[in-house]
Sequence to fold (340 residues):
Amino acid sequence: MKRALTTGVTGQDGSYLTELLLSKGYEVHGIIRRASTFHTERIDHLYQDPHLRGTRLFLHYGDLSDSVTLVKLLNELKPDEIYHLGAQSHVRVSFDIPEYTADINAVGTIRILEAIRQAGVRPRFYQASSSEMFGKVVEIPQRETTPFHPRSPYGVSKVFAFWATVNYRESYGLFAANGVLFNHESPRRGETFVTRKISRAVAHIKAGLQKKVYLGNLEAKRDWGYAPEYTEAMWLILQQDSPDDYVIATGETHSVQEFCEEAFGLVGLDWRRYVELDQRYLRPAEVDVLMGDPSKAKKRLGWEPKVKFKELVKIMVEADVKALEDRLAGKVPAVEDERP
Fold:
């Protein structure tokens, strides 16, 4: 039985990846941060499964700022594969907490790579890299050879982590690979991310519980895919004969405004009546357009996206509408207008 260790296990990607690995017969260990409240909603259905609990899914307290615990876990678990998904993942927030973003995303990656080296284990290592590394793009679409020009502390931190992964691969012979994932969404996306913010607002506005949704740059264009498919690409990257770096994307780009049009249109509403600009959501340096070229992933991994833009929006809106209906059936209090 293969054993996997995952950082960021309670996040969107971590939860889908955990489902995938368990379905393939893995024993999965996840690192979670200690907090006064539980943040395991996305994996509770797995952790509470009587067929899995205490047998193939385990959670361990740890933090990417604590190298001692990382070394200890690697020595104890000796995983076959490590999926490094943990990060401060919100681009706009990275401008407000740049030092923390750098410490967790950049130095945190060095900590876990060095922990691998110090522990003397030889797992296959996956680094969750980001399309935000391309930033002010020099070509469209972006591919594995496109130069980086990050436009946020988040993007800068991910460039550091990308090259740290390459450096440890070349310096120490580690099986260390980067998946440069473009935006990928789902009903499990965090509520502060623009796509989920929109789909959630559509549900509440349709139900008469919210009047407006406040967004930033509506002209920003992104390459949006479906998160469960992207976690499959992560797994495929670590199943190859040799480590390499791959762009994972749909090859299409759509604006935030297009997402609004599609999402509100699904429930028969005109987005222009409900969407307002809030300057506080604008970035000091904007990334205007991102669109990836997944040709290498298709050729080498046999991976290509199946869920495209319109279907993705539909999945998210329908999930939030149903979730709200279920909450209202349980007499959950209504929410107020969404404000910063």
About this structure: The CA atoms of residues 218 and 256 lie 5 Å apart. Confidence is low (pLDDT under 50) at residues 333-340. The first helix runs from residue 12 to 23. The radius of gyration is 20 Å.
